[in-house]
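Changelog-linked ticket: zinc ion example.
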Amino acid sequence: MPDFSIGVDLGGTNLRIAAVSTQGELLEKVTLGSKAAPTRDQVIGQMCDAIQHLSAKYRAAGNLLGAGIGVPGIIDMATGTIRKSVNLPGWEDYPVRAEIERRLHARVVLDNDARVAALGEQWLGAGRGVSNMAMITLGTGIGGAIVLGGKLFYGMNGMAGEFGHVTLEPEGVPCGCGNRGCAERYASASAILRMAREAIATGEAPSLAAASSDAQLGAQSIYNLAMQGDEPARRIFQTFGRYLGIMLAGAVNVLNLDMFVIGGGVASAWDAFAPKMFEELRTRSVVYAATTPADPLGSEKVTWGRAHSPAPAEQSSAAAGARDVSSLVPANEYDAPARITIITRALLGGDAGLYGAARSAALAG
Ligand SMILES: [Zn+2]
């Protein structure tokens, strides 16, 4: 058996921990339910107990290379602390990495959740075999990360990839970051709910009133209405797709990457927003216009795996069923110079962060 590492997804409603081999095989996944408001020290205790249990179980067969922890928030990579996290009050400026390393006697990597998700998708998901890509996660807000040469690009102090705070409307909706008109005010779950509230206020969207009453299910209910042909709901996702397309057009122009992976919960509304998103991309990005795939809307199922001759076991895993585009991509020994920009949905869902966190720990060695 190969060596393995531990991936941790901290911060959602559950604490999830996985043991993953260096070949990308999931050995075991543990989900610890969140008790009523456990304290920081309780969470760290539960996490370390579970990691020690998993590492003891698989130690006989392979070495534990370390643990990676994905956290929603701004991470100080140098000190291994959480600088700011809305979901984890009381964790800011606490020496998270040092404390967990002390308890585990193993290497620990603490990183942002969107970044480890990008690493997971690049390793085993939509971006498998693609060295240069970005991931954009659409949730309550917008997360982002850039992978260059198969490694995360952090920027000067770990703040690269903030696609969500690019200004799209100079005098637009105020954002928590202090700016106005940020992308995440227009292309996130909270943006969908805001647009629904505004439509309801006009008195012309009675169907939305019922759908958006539940803040948890709101975006999903509005998506269902849109797919049933409800015009106010359809307009919301068209507006969403328009702004997302404008944001992506800028990103494609600046970065000229092979692939942009769209993940996060709202990515499941792809059918409702993607046509408008691609329309904006084609008209607003000179780089995208020059590198548009023949069938961009079909590109969410594209994988480049075959161009890189993965092992048979790999083909049957996460990317199974994805459309092969080896005819579009020269089957070179080196990284394929595809000449097309693929904008595609994430493949691994919530597990991307677990795989990516494990990967980050393995790569750190
Ligand atoms: Zn902002």
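Closing comment: Example verified and attached. The first strand starts at residue 4 and ends at 9. The chain has two domains: 4-119+357-363, 130-347.
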